[in-house]
């Protein structure tokens, strides 16, 4: 499974990962790892991201073959 976290962040108006990480209250390196798929996150964190970005879980998470 791959996330569309970067696309959703940009759609929400955050031009940089740093801007979102700062507003969300998360370490930039940790957030960047999430965005680049180097680190997975819990369903609870996915809900938090979706709420913060104004999107659904379906929009945030996209399954690939």
Describe the structure concisely for a colleague.
The chain has helices at residues 5-11, 17-24, 28-36, 43-53, 57-60, and strands at 2-3, 61-62. The protein is mainly α and 65 residues long.
C-alpha-based Rg, rounded:
11 Å
Percent range of helical residues = 55-70%
- The termini sit apart by 9 Å
The tally of strands reads 2
Percent of residues in beta strands? Answer: 5-15%
Regions with little confidence, pLDDT below 50 for 5+ residues: none
State the order of secondary-structure elements, H for helix, E for strand: EHHHHHE
Shape: globular
What's the total helix number? Answer: 5
Major sheet: size, sense and barrel closure? 2 strands, antiparallel
Instruction: Briefly note the structural class of the backbone.
Output: mainly alpha
* Average pLDDT level: 89
The order of strands across the largest sheet is 1-2
Features:
65 residues; 5 helices; mainly alpha
Summarize the structure in words.
The protein has 65 residues and is mainly alpha-helical. The longest helix has 11 residues, at 43-53. Helices cover 60% and strands 6% of the residues. It is globular, with a radius of gyration of 11 Å. The chain is built from 5 helices and 2 strands, in the order E-H-H-H-H-H-E. Strands 1-2 form a two-stranded antiparallel sheet.
